[in-house]
Design goal:
There is one protein chain. This protein is α/β, with parallel strands linked by helices and about 725 residues long. It has 25 helices and 21 strands. A hairpin with a 2-residue loop joins strand 5 and strand 6. The longest helix is centred in the N-terminal third of the chain and has 32 residues.
C-alpha cells in the first residue's frame, strides 16, 4: 500500500501538472482531499425532455431529435477580418417541430464531424431567439446509439453539478477531474464519532462525498449537505471548545473589588441608577474577574445602552484590587472623548496624587500618538510606577516603550477596528495574561459569526438607560422626490431653532487627489456614476444655500488632532449648529444636544455603519431624527438595505441582515478579508441550530478527552481546518 494516504495524494500526481497548477493557483486545491471538498455550488437539471413544438423561452431544455441538415458558413468579423470566421448551423427535428443549433469559432469542429444528417442525439441548452427563430447556441449533446431508451432517461434526468470555477478551468473540467478522484472518497476518515453520527441519522462521510458530487436525486443532495454541514460546524466547534478549555487552564490574577474602595466610592456618587441590564452584566464581569483564569468576554450593547459605564466599573474593580486597566480606542478623537467622559464621571476620584484628589483616587492618563513629548513621558512614567490605575489610548498603547506596573484588564472598544495581533501585543504586557473585555455596539458580521460559534462568553445590553430618546429614521429618495430633500434641510433648521444641533455625514472628505476621488464604480445605478458627496463641498453648499445663516463647521480624519479636538469641543459647547463630518463621528461621540442627522449618499455605507452613526443623535431628552438621503431607485438592493435600517432600531436584527447580505467571510481567517472561507456548506445565519447543537456535542467531547486521543480521525480533520495561520489566529483570540 502507498505510504501517502489516498486523500493526501498531491493532485499533480493524479491529474497531471497543468490541471493541478491551475487548481492550486486559482482554487487553492492541492490534494485529492481538497478537491473532494470542493463542493458544487448548485445543480442544473438537463431539463425534462421537451417537444420541439413547445419550447419555453430562456429556459434550459433537453430534447431528443434527429439532425435534418448541417451547414458550415464562413464570415468576416473583427476577430476574423479575412472572412475566416466559422459558424455551424444545424437543424434538428423530432417530428413535432424544427429547431436550429449554432456553434461558432473553434467550437464548430467536433459537431461538424459528429452531427451528420440522420444522426440521433440528445441536446441540452438554453433556448434563445435569433432572427425571430428559436435556437440553442453551443448546446451540450450526447449521441444516441441504437437501444438508447435507457440513455435518454438517465441522461435527461441527471443532476449536473456546477462547480465554483475560474476562467482557466470550467466547471465541467472540474467535474471530470472529480470523476477521476471520486473512488478515493471511500478512504475518507470520518471525523464524527460513530454514536454521534448514528444518533443524528447522518450518512457516513464517504457516502456524503459520493452523493454531493454524483447525486441521483435531490434527496441525495439534501442528505449529503446535512452531513457536510455537521462536519464543518462540529470540527470548528471542537477547535473553539479546545481553545476555551486551554484558556481555562491559563493562570490569571483574580481581581476582586474592596467593599470600601474606589468602585464603592464611585457608585455612591452616581447621579442615576444603573439599568437592570447594566447591573446584571456587571455581575457577570465581576464574577469572571474574580477567577484565576483570564476572562474572555464580549460585551454587545445597543448604541447608547451604557457600555462605557459597565467598562468603567470593571476597570475600577481592577484598580481596587491593586491592578491597572487599559482601554484601547480605535481613533484619537474617540480616545480623547473616552478620557474626557471617564474623568468627568469620576470627578476627584480621577485626581490621584493631586491636590484635591479623593482618598481612594487614582490617575487616569491618556496616551495617543500625537501627544507632546513631555506629556507622553509623564504618562509612560505613571504607567510604569503604577501611579496611573487607568490608561485610555490608541495603538500607541501597544508600542514596546509602554511598560505597565501590573496590567490586570484590557478593554477593547469596537473590536472590529483592531487586529488580533494588536490585542495580542497588549495582552502580552501583563505579568500574567490580563482579563479581556471586548465591547461592540453593532455586532458586525465577523463578531456575529464568532458569537454564534461562541468562543467568547457573551453579555448583552439591550435596554436603553432612562432619559434616552427614541430615534425616528426615514429614507429620503432625493432623485425620485427632490422636494423631500428640501424638506430635510427645513427639518434641520427647525431643530436648530429649537436650540438643538445637527450632524450632516458624507462619505468623502473632498480634498483628495483627482485619481483617488472615487472608488471603482459599481454599475448598480446611474447614481453610482458620480463620486460620493464630500464634506468640504457639502459644507460650503449648505452654508451658502439651505442652511445659510446657521453656524456650520467641518470635521474629518485628515485634520490635525488639535483642530479635530477644538471642533468637537466647540460643537459640544453649542457654538456650532451643524457639523458636517465623515464617519470620524461614528463611534463614541456624545453630544446630548444633537438631535438630527442627515446622512448623504447613505447607500454608500454599510448597515452596521449607518446604525452606529444614527446612535449619535437622541442621546438627550429630545427625540432623535435620522434622514438617510439616497439617489438609488426604489427597487435596488441599496434601497432595500436603507429601508431595513429605517424600519428597526434593533442592532442585533440589523447585524443579521448585514450578515445575510455580505456572507460571513472566513470565520477563522482575517476579518472580512474576502479570503476563501473555511465554511463551504455552513451559512452562519441559516444554520444556527446545527451550530448550537454542534457546540454542545463538542463541549461534551472536549471535556472528556481534551487532546482527542480516542478520536484520531477528528484530530486529523482539526489539523486540516487549522493550518498554522488559523491556529495562531485562534490562539491569539
Amino acid at each position: 500500500m502507498d505510504s501517502v494516504p489516498a486523500l493526501d495524494e498531491p493532485l499533480k500526481k493524479v491529474l497531471g501538472p497543468a490541471t493541478a497548477k491551475v487548481m492550486a493557483e486559482h482554487l487553492g486545491l492541492h490534494t485529492v482531499g481538497d478537491l473532494l471538498h470542493h463542493y458544487p455550488r448548485r445543480y442544473e437539471e438537463r431539463g425534462q425532455l421537451t417537444h420541439l413544438a413547445d419550447l419555453p423561452m430562456d429556459e434550459h431544455v433537453t430534447v431528443v431529435a434527429q439532425v435534418a441538415d448541417a451547414r458550415l458558413h464562413t464570415f468576416a468579423s473583427s476577430r476574423a477580418p479575412r472572412g475566416k470566421g466559422q459558424r455551424l448551423e444545424v437543424t434538428i427535428t423530432d417530428g413535432s417541430g424544427r429547431l436550429q443549433l449554432v456553434f461558432f469559432g473553434a467550437g464548430v469542429h467536433k459537431p461538424h464531424k459528429e452531427l451528420l444528417p440522420g444522426t440521433r442525439a440528445m441536446f441540452a441548452g438554453k433556448v434563445s431567439v435569433f432572427n425571430r427563430r428559436l435556437q440553442l447556441a453551443h448546446p451540450a449533446y450526447e449521441l444516441l446509439r441504437e437501444d438508447a431508451e435507457e440513455t435518454v432517461e438517465t441522461w435527461a434526468g441527471a443532476l449536473i453539478p456546477i462547480y465554483p470555477a475560474t476562467a482557466k478551468l470550467e466547471s465541467w473540467k472540474i467535474g471530470k477531474a472529480l470523476q477521476t478522484v471520486l473512488p478515493s472518497a471511500q478512504e475518507a476518515a470520518d471525523p464524527l464519532p460513530g454514536p454521534l453520527r448514528e444518533g443524528r441519522g447522518l450518512v457516513t462521510l464517504p457516502e456524503a462525498l459520493l452523493k454531493i458530487h454524483r447525486p441521483h436525486t435531490k434527496a441525495d443532495i439534501e442528505e449529503a449537505r446535512a452531513r457536510l454541514k455537521w462536519d464543518e460546524a462540529f470540527v470548528l466547534q471542537v477547535a473553539l471548545a479546545r481553545r476555551r478549555h486551554a484558556d481555562a487552564q491559563l493562570p490569571a490574577v483574580p481581581r476582586r473589588p474592596r467593599p470600601d474602595g474606589i468602585l464603592a466610592a464611585f457608585d455612591d456618587r452616581l447621579p442615576f441608577t444603573l439599568t437592570e441590564g447594566q447591573r446584571k452584566v456587571s455581575e457577570e464581569i465581576f464574577a469572571d474577574l474574580a477567577t484565576d483564569h483570564p476572562m474572555h468576554r464580549l460585551l454587545q450593547g445597543e448604541v447608547g445602552s451604557g457600555k462605557t459605564m459597565v467598562a468603567l466599573r470593571a476597570m475600577l474593580a481592577v484598580v481596587d484590587a491593586g491592578g491597572q486597566a487599559a482601554m484601547l480606542a480605535p481613533t484619537e478623537v474617540l480616545a480623547q472623548q473616552h478620557h474626557r467622559s471617564v474623568t468627568e464621571m469620576m470627578g476627584d476620584l480621577a485626581q490621584g496624587g493631586m491636590l484635591g484628589g479623593a482618598d481612594d483616587a487614582t490617575k487616569v492618563v491618556l496616551l495617543t500618538g500625537s501627544m507632546g513629548a513631555a506629556a507622553r513621558r509623564q504618562a509612560l512614567l505613571d504607567l510604569a510606577t503604577g501611579e496611573a490605575g487607568i490608561v485610555i489610548g490608541t495603538h500607541a498603547l501597544i508600542e514596546d516603550k509602554v511598560q505597565f506596573h501590573d496590567l490586570g484588564l484590557v478593554v477593547v472598544d469596537e473590536q472590529h477596528r483592531f487586529g488580533v495581533e494588536q490585542r495580542d501585543a497588549l495582552r502580552g504586557k501583563g505579568k500574567q495574561p490580563p482579563h479581556l473585555l471586548v465591547m461592540t455596539a453593532t455586532p458586525i458580521p465577523r463578531t456575529v459569526a464568532m458569537t454564534v460559534f461562541g468562543d467568547l462568553e457573551t453579555s448583552v445590553l439591550d435596554q436603553l438607560p432612562a432619559g434616552r430618546s427614541p430615534i425616528a429614521s426615514h429614507v429620503v429618495p432625493a432623485a425620485d422626490k427632490p422636494h423631500f430633500l428640501a424638506r430635510a434641510w427645513e427639518r434641520v433648521r427647525e431643530e436648530v431653532e429649537k436650540g438643538h444641533q445637527a450632524y450632516v455625514v458624507c462619505p468623502r472628505i473632498g480634498d483628495e487627489e483627482d485619481g483617488a476621488k472615487a472608488k471603482k464604480k459599481s454599475p448598480e445605478d446611474e447614481a453610482e456614476k458620480r463620486p460620493p458627496l464630500a464634506v468640504l463641498d457639502t459644507a460650503e453648499q449648505l452654508a451658502r444655500g439651505p442652511l445659510a445663516g446657521l453656524r456650520v463647521d467641518v470635521l474629518h480624519g485628515r485634520m490635525p488632532p488639535d483642530d479635530k479636538d477644538a471642533v468637537m469641543r466647540r460643537f459640544a459647547a453649542g457654538e456650532v449648529d451643524v457639523l458636517v463630518a465623515t464617519t470620524v463621528i461614528e463611534v463614541g461621540v456624545n453630544v446630548p444636544n444633537a438631535t438630527a442627522m442627515v446622512i448623504m449618499d447613505a447607500d454608500r455605507f454599510g448597515v452596521s455603519q449607518l446604525h452606529q452613526l444614527r446612535g449619535r443623535v437622541g442621546r438627550g431628552s429630545a427625540p432623535g431624527l435620522c434622514l438617510l438621503v439616497t439617489e438609488m431607485p426604489e427597487a435596488s438592493p441599496a434601497r432595500q438595505r436603507l429601508n431595513a435600517v429605517a424600519s428597526t432600531l434593533d442592532g442585533f436584527e440589523l447585524s443579521r441582515i448585514d450578515l445575510e447580505q455580505r456572507r460571513e467571510g472566513d470565520v477563522l481567517g482575517q476579518a472580512q478579508s474576502g479570503t476563501r472561507s473555511s465554511l463551504r456548506m455552513l451559512a452562519v445565519i441559516d444554520d444556527e441550530e446545527v451550530i448550537a447543537e454542534a457546540r454542545e456535542e463538542a463541549a461534551r467531547i472536549v471535556a472528556g478527552d481534551p487532546d482527542l486521543e480516542r478520536l484520531p480521525a477528528l484530530r486529523t480533520a482539526l489539523d486540516a481546518l487549522l493550518d498554522e495561520e488559523r491556529e495562531q489566529y485562534l490562539e491569539k483570540g
